[in-house]
Amino acid sequence: MQKNFDSEFEFIFSRSSGAGGQHVNKTSTKVELRFNINTSKILNLSEKEIIFEKMPMKISNEGYIQIVSQETRSQFKNKQICIKKFYELIEEAFRKEKKRIKTKRTLNSILKRLDFKKQRKDIKERRKKI
């Protein structure tokens, strides 16, 4: 899927937690990307339904996908990470699942399994007290 959602992103910046010393206390490096599926003009109705169906746990009650990154000390890098994660998420939602083709067990595999079961039975039989 080659759509550009950048115009519909909302970014929220805040102070990051974790290591970083004084730097972390005075810069807003944590980035939260928000994307409202319901108001999106880029996605059509069927695409919205697919997203809601395939990833209900990733969507808030208001219809937002929220992605947070605070991996680096750079706001710009965290923003790029959020965008990358979003596109991976959307790509995963629209990926077609391959239909499983049922296969029949071979005669050799069935015989091998029965032989193994017989061996186990014999081992357990030998353990019994006479």
Number of distinct beta strands: 3
User: What gyration radius follows from the Cα positions, in whole Å?
Assistant: 26 Å
- What is the level-2 CATH architecture name? 2-Layer Sandwich
Helix share bin: 40-55%
Quick summary of this structure?
The chain has 130 residues and is of the alpha+beta class.
Which features would summarize this protein structure in a list?
130 residues, alpha+beta, Double Stranded RNA Binding Domain, 4 helices, 3 strands
Describe the structure.
43% of the residues lie in helices and 14% in strands. The protein is elongated and about 80 Å long. It has helices spanning 22-26, 45-54, 75-94, 107-127; strands spanning 10-14, 30-36, 64-69. The chain has a single domain, classed as 2-Layer Sandwich (Double Stranded RNA Binding Domain), CATH 3.30.160. The model has no long low-confidence stretch (mean pLDDT 86). It has 130 residues and is an alpha+beta fold. Strands 1-2-3 form a three-stranded antiparallel beta sheet, with helices on one face. The protein has four helices and three strands.
Please give the structural blueprint.
Layout: E1 10-14, H1 22-26, E2 30-36, H2 45-54, E3 64-69, H3 75-94, H4 107-127
Antiparallel strand pairs: 1-2, 2-3
